[in-house]
Amino acid sequence: MASVLKRILQFNSDRLPEFVRLKYQAMMESPFRFFRGTCHLFYEDLSRNIGWKDKTHTWICGDLHLENFGSYKGNNNVVYFDLNDFDEALKAPASWELARFLTSIHVGAGSVGYTPKKADMLARYAMDVYLDTLKKGKPVIIEKETATGLLKEFLAQVQQRKEPDFIKSKVKGDRVLIDQKKVYAVPDQQKQVVAAKVEAWFCAHLPNREVKVQDVAARIAGTGSLGVRRYILLLKAGGKQHLLDLKQVGHSSLQPYTPVAQPAWLTQAYRVTTLQDRIQQVTPKMLHVLRFDKTDFVLKALQPTQDRMDLNRCKGRLDELEALIGTMAQLTASGQLRSGGRQGSSIADELIAFAGNHKKWSGKVLDYAQDYARQVQSDYDAYVRDGKHYLKSGAH
Residue 300: which H helix or E strand, with range? Predict the structure, then answer.
């Protein structure tokens, strides 16, 4: 098999060179950041080494880990906490999503100072909560009013953020602030193309609302998606300024490996938004698809109430981390139940039976997650060793 570095370079070969190098640098920060940026390695390895049977067909977000849960304001103006990244979403065995989530517990807990023994305890607790939620067959909803502990604290903080302050922190006049860290300038011609396409979309879909794109810049966010075309847009509508995120979407990195047949999606952006709508209880206030330059994009509002759960919040708060992981396990099972029965996915009764038969597979999934966390560490070490030389050489 090719080296870890070669597998990563091959997967990212079609991305923007100047930004994919930022991904390569970011992945050197820690094994957990490396794990976040290499979803494709996880599923390539899982497809070759899976040691249990799972005949379920479920809609999954595809890249589930501890920091792919977060807050957002739904289209009903309520702030929710839920799975929040669907670029890799598709149909797969239910245990595949679970295996990645459990692996992230082992890798992530270690990154904030917890012992392997405590990480194993957390993973087993997550498994118990996931199974219990599936067995009940009833999805749960997490919002500010129902949250407790660390999660309640997190949602209370993001709820206090106001849009005018949010805009002010990222905008000066009619221009997006360029910091060369999270926001980069783009050439004027590229600005004009993106602005024209977005204004045309608004004209076609919201003809009674006058919209003017004031500025466009490149946006850096996350880890796995670094290197794809992504923009932050400042627009004016109804006399107010708003910020939007426009993100390129390609094929799911799971697609070559899942044993489950997929629908023929109209576009890849349509796949992402459809499955986000299907898996989440309530979708964000604005979530749309665009296509230009033969490229699929997802357009959504940037919200002051939108935030990812940062694992560093959990340092020294094991009880709080356990409760948070339990909530994440509930949401994982809930998304599978909520989306069940759509386009050939397993219905709730099949998922309930799968959970009831867990003695045949749950221990193997737990063992795989623990073993693969060690593989992540080994791959990370090899990547850092070879990647430093690669980046130093200036190769693309």
Answer: strand 295-301
Residues 167 and 297 in one domain: yes
User: DSSP alpha helices (H): ranges in 3-93?
Assistant: 4-11, 17-26, 31-36, 39-49
Q: Answer whether residue 314 shows pLDDT above 80.
A: no
| Whole-number Cα distances in Å, 389 to 16, 19, 393 | 20, 18, 6
| Structure confidence at residue 312 as a pLDDT band (50, 70, 90) | confident
DSSP per-residue string spanning 120-166: HHHHHHHHHHHHHHHHHT-----BTTT--HHHHHHHHHHHT--HHHH
pLDDT of residue 274: 97
Element (DSSP H or E) covering residue 337: helix 318-338
SS3 396: coil
pTM recorded for the entire structure: 0.94
Q: For residue range 202-216, what is the model confidence (pLDDT) as tens digits?
A: 999 888 778 999 999
CA dihedral sign, ordered 142, 144, 148, 154: positive
Looking at the structure, tell me whether residues 156 and 92 fall in a common domain.
Answer: yes
Q: Which residues contact residue 136 at a Cβ distance below 8 angstroms, ignoring those fewer than 6 apart?
A: none
The whole domain housing 145 covers 29-160+315-393
